[in-house]
Specification:
With 406 residues, the chain is an alpha/beta fold. It folds into two domains: 256 residues, Crotonobetainyl-coa:carnitine coa-transferase, domain 1 (Rossmann fold, 3-Layer(aba) Sandwich); 83 residues, formyl-coa transferase, domain 3. It contains 17 helices and eleven strands. The strands form three sheets. Strands 3-2-1-4-5-6 form a six-stranded parallel sheet, with helices on both faces. The chain starts with 19 loop residues before the first strand and ends with a helix. It holds the Pfam family CoA_transf_3. Keywords: Transferase. It comes from Sphaerobacter thermophilus (strain ATCC 49802 / DSM 20745 / KCCM 41009 / NCIMB 13125 / S 6022). This is L-carnitine dehydratase/bile acid-inducible protein F. One of its GO terms (molecular function) is CoA-transferase activity.
């Protein structure tokens, strides 16, 4: 439970406290969604096969045998190892599902149905159930049911076609952006369905896909194409519709500068020591600057060459020009800016001891998300979870011997 308190001084429950979530999946998309629900107070039970979520083996590096990949998307959960291919295992999970509020899965469409755990069969006994399916390509069309991974979705969405430069060719975004976006859209959909259930008492299906999630955030790239502008080009670190706007080398590294209005352009020209640029017909308007970007970028780069990242960031910020250093992951995590966010939290893991994790990236003033549980060990809570549906120690031992649970 959160440490937040209400005005009367009592403990305030988190928004989803008392909500029961079952997760069926692996890797990122459904685990990240359910972790976010867990951050908001939901009781998340991660149903794992005997060999566990495949992400447990992703690495190196490892922390006391635990994968940082797995650790990063599985806090605030309990792990129950149940063999869904065993009749008794599937029956146990069905009982759990009948009592659940939310199911989230990134199994391929049709897998849950073949296991006897599909939306329709469960809704017949649990009309309030919210059933969330994260897939590669959605529930319809020629690719429905096909497996997909993040980079495949990046490529098929068009994202890779606008990432990189003309010289580099298509380049993937350096994080599993399709997986993460699908998880975020799934979380939004589940919360919307939950709000609707508060009014009607009825659940509904939530679908999102890796492909659809990336398309959902391409904004002006897709907007330009739909408006008749054709396929956008790869612009590298330059902004396609504003200039100067991008990454620039300086004496000891690189900085980003973002000029998105005429007042900012005038301030940049002034602080760089070239106020005459404002009246240069090549650079008079943003459209002029975009057309003449190579010449403009060369001049800006030359003006920046004589000073350091820290000095330029200080000077540009003082002048009111949006800018920032380009940091490595380590530089970002060790910076004062990130430290003040409070997003890096120390968590006591049951095997690895005290470990740092990236915590919730949102803040709620009254009911803040908290890390209540470390990422679970494989099957750590199987007996505990099954005891909640009446499986005693003797029955649990029998089911384990039969291969139904682990």
């Amino acid at each position: 439970m959160s440490d937040a308190t209400n005005p009367a001084g009592g403990a305030r429950p988190q928004p989803l406290e008392g909500v029961r979530v079952l997760e069926f999946g692996q890797a990122v998309s459904s685990p990240l969604c359910t972790m976010l629900l867990g951050d908001l107070g939901a009781d998340v039970v991660k149903i794992e096969p005997p060999h566990g979520d495949a992400a447990r083996g992703y690495g190196p590096p490892f922390v006391a045998g635990e994968s940082p990949y797995f650790l990063s998307v599985n806090r605030n959960k309990r792990s129950a190892v149940i063999n869904l291919k065993h009749p008794e295992g599937a029956a146990l999970v069905r009982t759990l599902a009948e009592r659940a509020d939310i199911i989230v899965t990134n199994f391929r469409p049709g897998v849950m149905e073949r296991l006897g755990l599909g939306e329709e069969s469960l809704r017949a006994v649990n009309p309030g159930l919210i059933f969330c399916q994260v897939s590669g390509y959605g529930p319809r069309g020629p690719y429905a049911g096909q497996p997909s991974y993040d980079q495949i979705a990046q490529g098929m969405s068009g994202l890779m076609s606008v990432t990189g430069t003309e010289e580099s060719g298509p380049v993937r975004v350096g994080v599993a952006i399709a997986d993460c976006l699908a998880a975020l859209f799934a979380t939004i959909g589940v919360l919307g369905a939950f709000a609707e259930r508060q009014r009607t008492g009825l659940g509904q299906r939530v679908d999102t896909s890796l492909l659809g999630a990336v398309l959902g955030i391409l904004t002006y790239q897709t907007g330009g194409y739909l408006a008749g502008g054709g396929d956008p080009k790869r612009e590298g670190n330059d902004h396609p519709v504003a200039a100067p706007y991008g990454a620039f080398p300086v004496q000891d590294g690189h900085i980003n500068i973002a000029v998105a209005s005429e007042p900012v352009w005038r301030r940049l020209a002034e602080v760089l020591g070239h106020p005459e640029w404002v009246d240069d017909p090549r650079f008079r308007t943003n459209a002029d600057r975009v057309r003449n970007r190579p010449a403009l970028n060369a001049l800006v780069t030359e003006a920046l060459a004589g000073d350091t990242v820290d000095n330029w960031v200080a000077r540009l910020n003082e002048a009111g020009v949006p800018c920032g250093p380009i940091w490595s992951i380590g530089q970002a995590l060790e910076s004062d800016v990130v430290r003040h966010l409070g997003i890096i939290q120390q968590v006591r893991h049951d095997r690895a001891g005290e470990i740092p994790l990236i915590g919730p990236a949102i803040e709620l003033t009254a009911t803040p998300p908290v890390i209540r549980r470390p990422p679970p060990l494989l099957g750590q809570h199987t007996a505990e979870v099954l005891a909640e549906i009446g499986v005693d120690e003797a029955e649990f031992a029998r089911l384990r011997e039969a291969g139904a649970v682990g």
